Amino acid sequence: MTDNGGQASGGDQPVTAPLLSIDGLRTMVSSRRESFDVVRGLSLDIYANEVLCLVGESGCGKSITALSIMRLLPTPPVRVREGTIRFRGEDLLSVSGKRMRSIRADAISMIFQDPLTSLDPVFTVGEVIVEVIRAHRDMNKEDARRLAGDALTKVGLPDPISQLDSYPHQLSGGMRQRVMIAMALVLDPDILIADEPTTALDVTVQAQILDQLVTEQRERNMAMLLITHDLAVVAAVADRVAVMYAGEIVEQAPVDELFEDPRHPYTQGLLRALPKVSTTRRRLDPIPGLVPSLQMMPPGCAFAPRCPHALDRCWTEQPELAADQDGRVFRCFNPQPFAG
Amino acid sequence: MRRLVARSVYMLVIVAVSSVAVFYAIRLSGGDAVAAVIQPGSASLEAREQLRELWGLNLPIHEQYFDYMGRLLRGDLGHSLTNSTPIVDMLVIHGRHSLILGVAALLIVFGLGIPLGILASLRRNGVVDASIMTLSVGGMAIPNFWLALLAVWLFASTLHWLPSAGCCGPKQLVMPAFVLAAEGLALTVRMTRSAMLESLDRDFVRTLRSGGLSEVRVIGRHVLRNAMIPLVSLAGLRIGQIVGYALVVETIFGWPGLGQVLVNAVLRRDYPVAQFFSLVLVALVILGNWAADLGYQFANPRLRAARS
């Protein structure tokens, strides 16, 4: 799909080679008074055809990570300070603006949380999709419109062709999010980044949209980076999960392993905090304490202040994200077995 | 559609109410048409009374009003009391001059104001932005009659670039047009800038960028179109401002437009001329607002859909 100038395409490479590889990403917020990192040395690989969920509570840097990949950070005040983001060998952080524009939507697409505000209110749905198509393809308006109509049909929008002439305010939230998905997928990208795509929607619509996303991901053999704070969503769709806490990844695992046997105390806390309807224990079990302020990070493990098993060294030393003897990847000096 | 009809009826009601107000205001403002026309002591009391009767000034004001409105609606605009010129002729001759001046001022307000506002927004907090904003504060703060005098002093008396007054060539047009436009220009620049900045901050801009659109398209097409909505809605105020200020500016620069005619007519108690041209100004202001309202509905798809 993408013209990647002689780079090996994903299909020729061994299965283990990532499609997108983030290495040591540090993204900072700076103002006149202060500056601090909101993403603190994040490394993450996304492989072809997988659904990777990036989980964590609000403010942990999930969205900033996604926007760093797309180079859509609100700069100033937010900018990438360090690290590389390689897509098929090309470092997205150092390519030209023009090259980056050609990658957006064509190779890497993104959909956002709030479909209400994410669509331009004064243009019809069709006009904008046609514009996106024609920014990348040498195509006349009629053909582009036909392609846009096909895209709306595929995402299950009722009466798709006449909806091309609808304005966003004439559509419901779920329909708008389908339009966003159609726009993101119209050029058949390799990676879709979905930043909390269902959070702003009604519960019943959430399931439909999620279902649509997974269907599209499978049919297109596309990789999907799904950002969410909802573990039920993770359990339903993820192949692999990366758990983020205070700007860094604390654990990374295939979805089954993560839910059955979480290693990092934060992941364990998250799972324990899930309300369980079926069990007799009806009490909620939150993680005590608060996320540390990013302006004043503790010198040791970021989770130490809330950790029930913190050792002395946890307060002074940063644990590395590393694999243990079972091949499990997490960031902890003192992992404890999980007792749900 | 219903909204449109309602607005139009509303507009007519305002014109009717204004006509009453104008009619009474001119007659109650003191002074006497007869005295203004005839030199003191040059005519007998009887002659003056005859003139009053001829002009219908001896009747109660409400009778004068209905008589006047009746003729107005039949297309009889009457003529000037001071020099007997038919008001239709005055409307044609002076209206043309006013139209030229007004259109020139409107072109400056929007044709210059919108690009300057866009420029300022794109160079936010830079030198260009600061200069444009400083000038626009000046444009809003300096009253136009004072600005007119300053302009005459600088460009006519000192630099001798432009004539201080007169009609009707392009050179004579420059100063009155800019002075007339100054406040509207300043307001348009500021509004364009803030509307642009507000639109630039909206979520859909990020979506469009994520679609790989160029900045020229994102800003020049989408952000701008969104920013235009509040501007269009206030265009009516700008038109009203220009109509109102024309009185002052035309008088200062000796530009023979409707404003100047109206000012002279009021000073001479030339009732038919004064009340007719007052009504014309009222109608223009209302019409401007009405047009802006239509434009706003057209620019905003939410209202456009609701209307049909």
Rg of chain A to the nearest angstrom?
21 Å
- Largest Cβ-defined interface: A-B, 31 and 22 residues
The arrangement of helices and strands of chain A along the chain is EEEHEEHEHHHHEHEHEEHHEE
Uncertain regions spanning at least 5 consecutive residues of chain B: none
Radius of gyration of chain B: 24 Å
What is the CATH topology descriptor of chain A?
Rossmann fold
Uncertain residue ranges of chain A: 1-14
Helix/strand/pairing category of chain B: mainly alpha
Number of strands of chain B: 0
User: Could you say what the CATH topology of the domain at 100-261 in chain B is called?
Assistant: MetI-like fold
Shape of chain B: flat
Number of domains of chain A: 1
- Assembly state of the chains shown: heterodimer
**How many extended strands of chain A?**
12
In the CATH hierarchy, what is the superfamily of chain A?
A: P-loop containing nucleotide triphosphate hydrolases
Helix content of chain B: over 70%
Overview features:
heterodimer; A: 340 residues; alpha/beta; Rossmann fold; eight-stranded mixed sheet; four-stranded antiparallel sheet; 10 helices; 12 strands; globular; B: 308 residues; mainly alpha; MetI-like fold; 13 helices; flat
Give a written overview of the molecule.
The complex is a heterodimer of chains A (340) and B (308). With 340 residues, chain A is an alpha/beta fold. Chain A has 10 helices and 12 strands. The longest helix of chain A is centred in the middle third of the chain and has 18 residues, at 203-220. Chain A is globular, with a radius of gyration of 21 Å. In chain A, helix 7 (203-220) links the parallel strand 7 (191-195) and strand 8. Chain A has one domain (19-116, 189-340): P-loop containing nucleotide triphosphate hydrolases (Rossmann fold, 3-Layer(aba) Sandwich). Chain A has an 8-stranded mixed beta sheet with strand order 6-7-8-3-9-10-12-11, sandwiched between helices. Chain A has a 4-stranded antiparallel beta sheet with strand order 2-1-4-5, covered by helices on one side. Chain B has 308 residues and is mostly helical. Chain B has a domain at 100-261: Orthogonal Bundle (MetI-like fold). Helix content of chain B is 80%, strand content 0%. Chain B has helices spanning 2-28, 33-37, 45-54, 61-73, 87-122, 127-141, 144-158, 170-200, 203-210, 215-253, 258-267, 271-299, 301-307. In chain B, helix 5 (87-122) packs antiparallel against helix 10 and helix 7 (144-158) crosses helix 10. Chain B starts with a helix and ends with a helix. The mean pLDDT of chain B is 86. Chain A binds chain B through residues 70, 72, 101-106, 109-110, 112, 114, 117-124, 128, 131-132, 135-136, 167, 169-170, 180, 183-184, and chain B through 202-204, 206-214, 217, 222, 225-226, 229, 299-302, 305.
